Amino acid sequence: MSKIVFMLEEPSMKELLDKLLPQLLPQGVDFMTVPHEGKQDLERSIRRKLRAWNEPGVRFIIVRDQDGGNCFRIKGDLLNICKLAGRPDSVIRIVCNELESWFLGDLVAVAAAYDKPRIARLQGKRKYRNPDNVTNAAEELKKLVPEYQKLQGARRIANHIDRDRNISNSFRVFLEGVLRVANSN
Questions:
Q1: Backbone phi, then psi, for 149, in 5-degree steps?
Q2: Helix (H, G, I), strand (E, B) or coil at 110
Q3: CB–CB of 109/161 below 8 Å?
Q4: Residue 100, C-beta contacts closer than 8 angstroms, at least 6 positions apart
Q5: What element of type H or E holds 140?
Q6: pLDDT tens for residues 31-77?
Q7: What phi, psi does 5 have (nearest 5°)?
Q8: Contact 163, 94 (CB under 8 A)
Q9: What spatial distance separates the first Cα and last Cα of the chain, rounded to whole Å?
Q10: Which end of the chain offers a freer environment for a tag, N or C, measured as fewer CB atoms within 10 Å?
Q11: Stretch (H or E) spanning 61
Q12: Inter-helix orientation angle 71-84/39-52, to 10°
């Protein structure tokens, strides 16, 4: 394999993955992150981009927020788009519920990014033990860090996020999928 192309719902995911992926991917596996302006923009462009991409050895990973929708239906719909585009080998990953859920899964990273050590101690509280179940993760994060903004926040937190420390199951499933694709031929 020469490259993994990540097609993303939003620019803030690009900020996170551009920092995280170099630490995660095996040597010799290149990547590209392609942000979109929301889920509708992403879904409209998948078929066109997958069909037009002629680079040999490229694999695609599509990343979209759940946003309260039915995870299985969203994943199935995206996989159907990929099949129609001639790329049934594409991997779909759904963030439960939104990117900020992954940040709530690593409050040590949030604390370090914003120099607020008290936030790290909150990870053991019931509310944050299963960050994928927090339906309003962006609002919850903003309660902890009032100055949090999506793009800048993703950039700041990405510098501190730890793949082994993060307790978001959605984040872990994403990482497993990326490593499976990276280690396949």
A1: -130, 145
A2: helix
A3: yes
A4: 137, 138, 140, 141
A5: helix 137-144
A6: 999 999 999 999 999 999 999 998 998 999 999 999 888 999 999 99
A7: -105, 120
A8: no
A9: 6
A10: C
A11: strand 58-65
A12: 30
Quote the pLDDT of residue 135. Answer: 87
- Residue 14 CB contacts under 8 Å (≥ 6 apart), including other chains: 8, 33, 34, 35
Structure tokens at 10: 């939003």
Tokens 């927090």: give the residue.
Answer: 134
Block residue for tokens 């990326």: 178
Torsion angle of C-alpha atoms 93, 96, 99, 102, degrees rounded to 10: -100
116 has a pLDDT exceeding 80: yes
Q: What is the mean pLDDT of residues 77-105?
A: 96
The first and second tokens of residue 96, run together, are: 């439960």
Q: From the CB of residue 31, how many other CB atoms can be counted at a distance below 10 Å?
A: 18
